[in-house]
Amino acid sequence: MALSFVPPLTRADVLRTLRVLEQLYDETRPYTLVLGGRGAAEVGGLHGPFRSIHIFQKLSDFARWLRDYTTHSHA
């Protein structure tokens, strides 16, 4: 799942969204959480029940990660 947090969304919005996603998370259907945008860039050290969490500040970094991720059959 990929989400982008752009102004006026802030760190607080990211953390609220993370809490909701944690409550709705179904361990029988695991997924990787990808966050981007200025609001997400302010947050670090996130963890939760997700397969993994990645935060990208640049779309080019996300595109490179996504290409590698799908190439290695993690999707």
Low-confidence stretches: none
Gross morphology: flat
**What structural category characterises the helix and strand content?**
alpha/beta
Q: Can you count the helices? A: 3
Integer-rounded radius of gyration: 12 Å
Portion in strands: 15-25%
Outline the biggest β-sheet: 3 strands, parallel
Strand order of the largest sheet: 1-2-3
Helix content: 40-55%
Describe the structure in your own words.
- The chain is 41% helix and 17% strand.
- The chain is an alpha/beta fold.
- The longest helix is centred in the N-terminal third of the chain and has 14 residues, at 11-24.
- The radius of gyration is 12 Å and the shape is flat.
Outline of this structure?
The protein is of the alpha/beta class.
Helix-strand blueprint:
Blueprint: E1 2-4, H1 11-24, E2 32-36, H2 38-41, E3 52-56, H3 59-71
Parallel strand pairs: 1-2, 2-3
Short descriptors:
single chain, about 80 residues, alpha/beta, 3 helices, flat
